[in-house]
Every structure is written in structure tokens, then in C-alpha cells.
């Protein structure tokens, strides 16, 4: 068959390979039929299309991105590849983040994600005044424009040293609440972090908001803000969802201490999102060959019942020079970096159903009644899937194949030509 074309109307995708866990079954991969009618998966067979064991997955949820930073590399590269180099470059580039600039870059990124098969995105948005009053209205506009294609959820982003219950952040929190977003903050060791965390969770609780933290994005074993977040959630009884991202320092801590922290994380009910591509790029960078690669302890987390997801993080900006918001790339890289192979059979949920559940996006399964939002691959097992970039994949939305043409990078050239 021509793998790039499918007939329109009700069809049965015959002999497709799907992860058993997405059908509520035990085991790894199974071969089955998927029936599609009226934009949904159904029990009713239609005209059969022999898929020759091609793999089918539900469309992806990318739950940790930075759409506002995306694609600024041409004017704001990282001078040395370090975390501090990235931070300085982004802060300098904030001067260019007017509404038209943000709209163009964020739209470009959404076009890429949609073409690759993503249906829901949570994005962090830099929110140090006066930026929130510029960025959040653009985000709201794009959320409306992309409704039905990509569900969007926004998270404010500030450093913990910039937080105060009595300062500008109260206005930011109100803005986030107005837009139905999530309260977010970067945590790092500061003397009064416990008090700041209590105040932050108090502000989230007052507005009925979930929380999402950037946590311990460093190889310094002494950075244990993850532990403090778990302790504070338990102490305060904060009962909205709490997500923690990165958690790199766990990988350099003494084993007993790290495992004890994970026990606290499990008790506190935290959700973890791992960002292996960005962490691989930034962590332990210096002269010579890196020794520590920054991936967090995802296996040990799953063993404790901690919900774990993977996501893209940054895209062509100083924090990560590469990427295209392609969750297949995230799957392939995470499998290699974190050794997801030769372990459990349900890691695919960490790129699909788990991040959707963590963010509260509509569930996406392969069960009858679910939207026929699928990604079909010319691969019959995991080694074939991970061996190639799957650039010939088919993306179905509501049972219909979408145009997967990616935008040209030249579409953004006018931004660099007008940069002061």
C-alpha cells in the first residue's frame, strides 16, 4: 500500500500494531483492527485497509514546552552551551518579545507540533513584569485560534527569588487564573525557600490552580528543592495537582538519600516530567567530555507509583539549540538516554495518556468511542519504530489525514531582519 494515503469515510485499519497497555491489556504489542467512523473509533467495521502491521498510537500530549522562547536561536544563541549562558541570552532577548514576535514564533512552533501528531500542549510562559501583559493575551488568542487542533494550557514562569505574596506576582497569579492556567515557578536553593513555597501554594489554593515547578536543574547533589516541595505539599495538605520537572540532581545524590526523597515524592502525590533532550544538552557542560548526563531517576519513580511523563522542553533557543516539538523524537531519545527498553511494557503511556491525565486534558485512548486522533507509522515493532525518524507517518485527526507539511524556517526571517 501507499503508506502516505488512506481512503476517506468509514474504514477499518486492519492488522495494525498497537501497545497492549493502550487497550487495557497486559503485554507489549498486539496486532488488531481499528474501526473508524464519523471521526471516532468504533465497534463497527468498515471497508478494510490492510495496514501490514503498521503501528498506531494515539496523538501525543507534550506537557512541558516553552513556546514563548521557541526559535529565537538566530538572534539569541547560547555563547557557550551552558545553563547560565542560556539564561543570559534569553533575558537579553526579552526586549524583542512584543506581540507580533511572539505570535509568529509560537504559531510556527504549533504548526510543527500539529504536523508531527501532537494534540495537546502545556507551555511555560516567562512572566516577569511587564512580560505577562504582553505574552498572556497572545497565548489566549492562539489558544482560541488552535482550538480543535491543539489544546493549549499556559503556566507562568518566574524564579523563586522573584516570588512574593505581596508583590507583582499577585497580579500575575490573577492573570493566570483569568486564563485558566497553572501557577509555575523555578526552584533552587535560597535560604527562605520553605516560606516561599508555602506562600506560593497558598496563592495557588486561593485561586484553585494547579502548580508546576522547574526543579533542581543542576548536577549539584546538594540541590534538594524537590525534597522540600514534597515536604511542603505534605505539610500544607495542598490537594491540587503538583508537577515537578527536570529533577536532575537526583542522579548525583547518594543512593539512599535519593530513594528517601522519592518516597516523599510518592507520598506527596507529585507528578514528574522528565526532559532528557534539554538536560543532555545543558548538564555537565564544560571543557572535555561530559560525565553526568542529567536524566532523572524515572525507573525508580515508576517503581514507586509516581506518575512520569516525558516532554520536549525548549526548541531552537539558548536552552536547547535543536528540536521541533516532535514527540516521536522525544520518544526515541528518551528510550536511548533513560534505557526505557528492556524494562516495563507501558512506557508509551509517558508520552500519551499520562501527560494528558496530569494536565487534565481530555483522555486519548484507542478504545471505541475515543476520537480517531491517531498517528500511524510504517514500523511493525519498537526496533523499527526507534531506528528511523518516522518522517512518513500519517496523522489522523477526527479520522482524516492532515497535511503534514512543515513550515519553512525562512517564514521567520523577517523577525531577525527587524531585530534592533
Automatic annotation (TrEMBL):
One of its GO terms (biological process) is cytosine catabolic process. PANTHER family: CYTOSINE DEAMINASE (PTHR32027:SF0). This is Cytosine deaminase. Gene3D superfamilies: Metal-dependent hydrolases (3.20.20.140), Urease, subunit C, domain 1 (2.30.40.10). Keywords: Hydrolase. Its EC number is 3.5.4.1. It comes from the Bacteria. Residues 197-387 form the Amidohydrolase domain. NCBIfam families: PRK07583.1. The lineage of its organism: Bacteria, Pseudomonadati, Pseudomonadota, Alphaproteobacteria, Rhodobacterales. The gene is codA. It comes from Jannaschia donghaensis.
Amino acid at each position: 500500500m501507499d503508506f502516505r494515503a488512506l481512503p476517506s469515510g468509514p474504514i477499518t485499519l486492519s492488522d495494525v500494531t498497537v501497545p497492549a497497555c493502550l487497550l487495557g491489556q497486559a503485554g507489549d504489542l498486539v496486532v488488531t483492527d481499528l474501526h473508524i467512523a464519523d471521526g471516532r473509533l468504533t465497534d463497527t467495521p468498515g471497508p478494510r485497509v490492510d495496514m501490514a502491521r503498521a503501528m498506531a498510537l494515539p496523538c501525543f500530549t507534550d506537557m512541558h514546552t516553552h513556546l514563548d522562547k521557541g526559535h529565537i536561536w538566530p538572534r539569541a544563541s547560547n555563547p557557550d552551551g551552558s545553563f547560565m549562558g542560556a539564561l543570559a541570552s534569553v533575558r537579553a532577548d526579552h526586549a524583542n518579545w512584543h506581540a507580533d514576535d511572539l505570535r509568529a514564533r509560537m504559531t510556527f512552533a504549533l504548526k510543527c507540533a500539529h504536523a508531527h501528531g501532537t494534540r495537546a500542549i502545556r507551555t511555560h510562559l516567562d512572566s516577569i513584569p511587564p512580560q505577562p501583559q504582553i505574552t498572556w493575551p497572545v497565548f489566549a488568542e492562539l489558544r482560541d485560534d488552535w482550538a480543535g487542533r491543539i489544546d493549549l494550557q499556559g503556566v507562568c514562569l518566574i524564579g523563586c527569588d522573584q516570588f512574593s505574596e505581596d508583590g507583582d506576582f499577585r497580579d500575575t497569579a490573577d492573570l493566570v487564573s483569568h486564563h485558566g492556567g497553572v501557577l509555575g515557578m523555578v526552584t533552587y536553593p535560597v535560604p527562605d525557600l520553605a516560606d516561599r513555597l508555602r506562600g506560593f501554594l497558598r496563592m495557588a489554593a486561593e485561586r484553585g490552580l494547579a502548580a508546576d515547578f522547574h526543579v533542581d536543574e543542576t548536577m549539584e547533589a546538594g540541590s534538594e528543592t524537590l525534597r522540600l516541595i514534597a515536604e511542603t505539599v505534605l505539610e500544607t495538605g495542598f490537594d491540587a495537582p503538583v508537577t515537578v520537572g527536570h529533577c536532575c540532581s537526583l542522579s548525583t545524590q547518594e543512593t539512599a538519600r535519593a530513594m528517601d526523597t522519592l518516597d516523599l515524592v510518592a507520598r506527596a502525590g507529585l507528578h514528574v516530567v522528565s526532559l532528557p533532550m534539554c538536560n543532555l544538552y545543558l548538564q555537565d557542560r564544560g571543557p572535555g567530555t561530559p560525565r553526568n548526563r542529567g536524566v532523572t531517576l524515572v525507573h525508580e519513580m515508576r517503581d514507586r507509583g509516581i506518575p512520569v511523563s516525558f516532554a520536549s522542553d525548549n526548541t531552537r533557543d539558548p536552552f536547547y539549540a535543536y528540536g521541533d516539538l516532535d514527540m516521536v523524537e522525544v520518544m526515541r531519545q528518551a528510550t536511548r538516554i533513560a534505557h526505557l527498553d528492556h524494562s516495563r511494557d507501558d512506557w508509551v503511556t509517558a508520552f500519551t495518556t499520562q501527560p494528558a491525565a496530569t494536565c487534565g486534558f481530555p483522555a486519548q485512548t484507542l478504545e471505541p468511542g475515543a476520537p480517531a486522533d491517531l498517528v500511524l507509522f510504517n514500523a511493525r515493532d519498537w526496533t523499527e519504530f526507534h531506528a528511523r525518524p518516522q518522517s512518513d507517518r500519517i496523522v489522523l485527526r477526527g479520522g482524516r489525514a492532515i497535511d503534514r507539511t512543515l513550515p519553512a524556517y525562512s517564514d521567520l526571517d523577517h523577525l531577525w531582519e527587524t531585530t534592533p
